[in-house]
Specification:
This protein has about 140 residues and is mostly helical. It is built from 1 helix and no strands.
Length: about 140
């Protein structure tokens, strides 16, 4: 193989072409690719952080919903117990009032019966006294 000036010129031309292509094409292209890779990595990190944050928010929401559900159930149970207690109290009061009304009515009827009996006795006594006075 012969090394002549054509080979040397071709080698120098290739080296110059490589240097020029490196400065004009490869370096800007590498820079754009690095920027794009950085942009993609940054967005990927942001997306992962957003997913973690969304999971935390979802977990917090679920906990609050569970707590609210438990609180609501406790409140409903408390109100039901309170309503039952009020119902029992009203029933007891009504029973007591009914007993008192019945007792009062019995006493009134007893007094009226005694009064009627006394009136009958008075009439009989008046008849007896009248008959003795007339004799």
């Amino acid at each position: 193989m012969e090394f002549n000036a054509t080979f040397l010129i071709s080698a120098i031309s290739f080296i110059l072409f490589t240097i020029i292509m490196n400065k004009i094409f490869y370096k800007p292209l590498e820079s754009v690719m690095n920027e794009r890779e950085k942009f993609i990595n940054d967005n990927l990190v942001d997306a992962k952080l957003s997913i973690v944050k969304a999971d935390e928010i979802t977990k917090d929401r679920d906990e609050k919903l569970s707590k609210s559900l438990v609180d609501a159930k406790m409140l409903v149970a408390k109100k039901i117990n309170q309503a039952n207690e009020n119902s029992r109290n009203f029933t007891e009061q009504a029973k007591q009032k009914s007993k008192e009304d019945i007792k009062s009515a019995k006493e009134t009827l007893t007094k009226e019966a005694e009064k009627n009996e006394l009136e009958l006795n008075i009439d009989e006594l008046a008849d007896v006294i009248y008959s003795k006075v007339l004799e």
